[in-house]
Amino acid sequence: MPQTVNAVVVKEKDGPAVLEQIIVPDPIAGEVVVDVLTCGVCQTDQHYQQGEVGDNFPYLLGHEATGRVSEIGEGVTNVKVGDTVILNWRAVCGECRACRKGEPKYCFDTHNAQQQMTLTDGTPLEAALGIGAFAEKTLVAAGQCTLIEDVPAESNAAVGLLGCGIMAGIGAAINTGEVKRGESVAVIGAGGVGTAAVLGAKLAGATTIIAVDLDERKLTKASELGATHTINSKESDAVESIRELTGGFGADLVIDAVGRPETYKQAFYARDLAGRVVLVGVPDPSHTLELPLADVFGRGGSLKSSWYGDCLPSRDFPMLVSHYRNGNLDLDAFVTERVSLDQVQEAFDTMNRGEVLRSVVELQSSTQN
Question: Contacts for 296-301 with beta carbons within 8 Å, 24 or more apart?
């Protein structure tokens, strides 16, 4: 029987994120209903609110989530009722041209639930990144669920962040940037994604890890989580400072976790000859980039963008959870505050003031049937 639950919805561009009741349908073949346990407050959700992702309002927000499987549709075999899962927005199809080429991390036809959740008046909801987890329950494709085991309940808020931003940052370093032991890495932007990239560089064995930001609070946190050097770009020229810290040459890999033309140019010129640049910060669609083509040619190396950290959730989430359990990956440090479902709008404001790495919504099993 379809269920009525509380959820956070934005009904129009720049409208408030408000608590509404929504209808979650019974799962059909290949779908799963999940009781949401935790959900991180990510800037992507605010991009939906501001109309920067599309105009398919109303949106059901939330996507960095853990949950417990409560119902499964026909043919679902990867999870069972009662399993604890991390939700992801890359349920690969296995059939598109990227998957057929053995590059499922670039899957062009990722799966979401076929049915839509709705408002109580029947209005269809567009779920953020195909998840919509600022809700007591949500409906997703089975492939969007990655089983997690041997993690205590109090750690769900931390491991759930692997569902988006933390995976994006770690993957930008390890998967896209292919950090090698002993290399130098600079990360421009020390927010949640950038600090996760610092962690990824540390995990991969980089020995010089430079964090760049305008905010000393963020630089301090980056140092605590693995940065060997920090640069406040309000006080020092970022490119020259990175070169000074890398023997005058520039870093082997520079990750732009901001996504602005200014920061991308810093990343481009702060790398060594034949070095790599990875863009993981999501750019404003209106921004353009201008670089001398002779410099692009003459400096060599590679310029890459990183989609979701070029991850495969079924491979990367369990690996990173193992690192967390073994004490090699401090995901708890990213959980700055825990809030309730009706505090999402306030959490957006806190995020915009730069006061948190992540606010995490924690939900109870108070769903009304």
Answer: 299/268, 299/271, 299/273, 299/274, 299/275, 300/273, 300/274, 301/271, 301/272, 301/273, 301/274, 301/275, 301/276, 301/277
